[in-house]
Structure formats: structure tokens, C-alpha cells
Specification:
9 helices, alpha/beta, 304 residues, two-stranded antiparallel ribbon, TIM Barrel
Length: 304
């Protein structure tokens, strides 16, 4: 089929030994990348309006620390922040952290970034939720400058750098930037400056229309859409990521390989080049169970 297959790190692997066993197996199985989800702060829905699927009870490994841990115990698989909520972070610090992951993994980092939805997270981290889009656009310029130059001079709305830089620079100069999101604004941003797109939207929720919009935006920006790695999800079970822990009763049911194949072929027809496998919320409790399902998924995809 020609897909580059990835997998989203199961956040329910809370034991570090289980986590190590899982990522090493994924590395050995020949997956292209592991995606590392990101949330720093969770809000209590009893006292906040929570506009997304996660709360203060949702388990998340810290993004950069976990990527560094996985870099040390794998050798081939790429490491994707999936997605880092960049506007709630300092761009210079994130540039340094991702450069470190890239150096320690010998050039395997991918910076997946997005704008975020959790205002409480922004408030706790001292960032303005209202201007996150403008800040994100400027942060992309700052990242690429810091990743490609020993010394940088930059003056923007939110960032000032005077004859300064990070050391060591990453192996990849620059580290690829993949954006998460599917709004019109985000699609135009991807067309202007993205290396990849994390299109985590169900097929039936207008994914084809969003891809058409990317092609239109690329044409307006003077880019070839083939330059952009478009990634979609396939859920091995019947879970709904937007439901978080509040899954429907049948969420634990594993979907049939025939269903995976039909969905993959539909994504292929839309021009998707990368597929990420999702094994969480399927009633799996051990690394071995996640590994077995990941192996089955890869075997099925490789046989198409």
C-alpha cells in the first residue's frame, strides 16, 4: 500500500518497564514513528468548563521527558510530539528541548505542534489563550531559526533574540514540523509552512473536504501538496478519542481487520501518506497486549 505506519503511545502504560518493552517492540516491528500525546495540566470539570476530552484525572506522561527516555532505548523509530501545545510554551525552551531529543536520537525527532483548546492549561502556564494563533505562527519562525543557526537575531511581536542561539544544534536542520488541527486557519498555516499534517479527523466528519481545502491552500501559497506528509488515525477498537475516558459501552470491542483495511483504502483514495494506529481504550492492560495488537495491525496493513 505504501503507507508509513506509526502508532500513538498508549498513555495507560504507566509502568516504566512496560513502557520500555512496548516502544522497543514497536522499534523492532519496523513502525516509522511513535506519537507522544501532550497535556501538562488537567482541569476539574466540576469547577471549569472543559471543552475537550481530558480532565485532571487523565494520565499523561510528560512529553519531552518521555521522548528522551524512548530515544535512549530505541534505535530506528522516529519520535513525534503528538501534538505539543506550542503556544502555552516558551519557543526558545521548546527549541532546545526538541534539539536535545533530536541529538539523543541521532536525528529521529518530529515536532508535531498545535494551538490547543484547554484554556486552564494556558492560564496555569502563564500564557495568553486569546493570542495563541498569532504566537504559534511566530514561534514556527523562531524554532526554525534556532534549529538552523548558531546565532540568531529576531524581533517579532512576542519574541526578541539578539545574537544568541542554542547548542548543540539538532541533527536535522530544521527538525520537521507537523501541525495538528483542521480549521481553515490551521490548514492555511500548514500550506504556508508545514512539513506534515496530523489530520486526526474521522473520515465521515468531512476529512475529504479538509484535504481538498489543503490542496486549494497549497495552490494559493505556491506549494505542491505532495510536499506535506498527511497523517490520519485508524482505531483498532471502537473508542472515540474525543470521549476521553467516557467511552461508549462497545469501545473495548476490537474492530475486525477488514474494517481496518476498508478505512485504510478510503484514506489512500484521499491521498493520505501516513497512518497512525491507536490501541488505547480497548481494554488492554499490558504492554504485551498492545504489542500483539500493533503487530496484527502492521501485518494487515503490510499485506494490502
Amino acid at each position: 500500500m505504501g503507507f508509513k505506519l506509526g502508532i500513538v503511545l498508549p498513555q495507560d502504560l504507566t509502568d516504566p518497564i512496560e513502557l520500555r518493552d512496548f516502544v522497543q517492540a514497536i522499534d523492532d516491528l519496523g513502525f516509522d514513528r511513535i506519537g507522544f500525546p501532550d497535556h501538562v495540566i488537567g482541569a476539574n470539570p466540576r469547577s471549569h468548563v472543559v471543552n475537550g476530552p481530558y480532565t485532571h484525572e487523565s494520565y499523561f506522561h510528560e512529553l519531552i521527558a518521555t521522548m528522551g527516555f524512548v530515544a535512549a532505548v530505541t534505535s530506528k523509530v522516529r519520535l513525534l510530539s503528538d501534538v505539543a501545545i506550542l503556544p502555552q510554551r516558551q519557543a526558545g525552551l521548546f527549541a532546545k528541548q526538541m534539539a536535545a531529543v533530536d541529538v539523543l536520537s541521532n536525528g529521529r525527532a518530529i515536532a508535531g505542534i498545535g494551538g490547543g483548546w484547554n484554556q486552564v492549561e494556558f492560564d496555569v502556564l502563564g500564557m495568553d489563550f486569546a493570542n495563541r494563533g498569532r504566537r504559534l505562527d511566530e514561534q514556527v519562525h523562531v524554532l526554525r531559526q534556532l534549529w538552523c543557526n548558531a546565532l540568531v537575531d529576531f524581533k517579532g511581536e512576542f519574541h526578541t533574540i539578539v545574537d544568541a542561539g542554542i547548542c548543540p544544534l539538532p541533527v536535522q536542520q530544521p527538525i520537521p514540523i507537523w501541525f495538528g488541527g483542521w480549521s481553515d486557519v490551521m490548514i492555511r498555516r500548514i500550506a504556508r509552512s508545514g512539513d506534515g499534517w496530523l489530520l486526526y479527523l474521522p473520515l465521515e466528519a468531512g476529512a475529504g473536504e479538509r484535504i481538498d481545502k489543503l490542496h486549494e491552500s497549497c495552490s494559493a501559497a505556491g506549494r505542491d501538496p505532495a510536499e506535506i506528509a498527511v497523517t490520519s488515525w485508524i482505531f483498532c477498537n471502537r473508542s472515540d478519542v474525543m470521549a476521553g475516558a467516557n467511552q461508549a459501552p462497545d469501545a473495548h470491542e476490537i474492530r475486525s481487520p477488514d474494517e481496518w483495511v476498508r478505512e485504510a483504502l478510503a484514506w489512500q483514495a484521499l491521498g493520505v501518506s501516513h497512518i497512525d494506529c491507536w490501541t488505547m481504550y480497548g481494554g488492554l492492560t499490558t504492554a504485551g497486549q498492545h504489542i500483539a495488537l500493533a503487530r496484527q495491525f502492521k501485518d494487515v496493513m503490510d499485506s494490502i
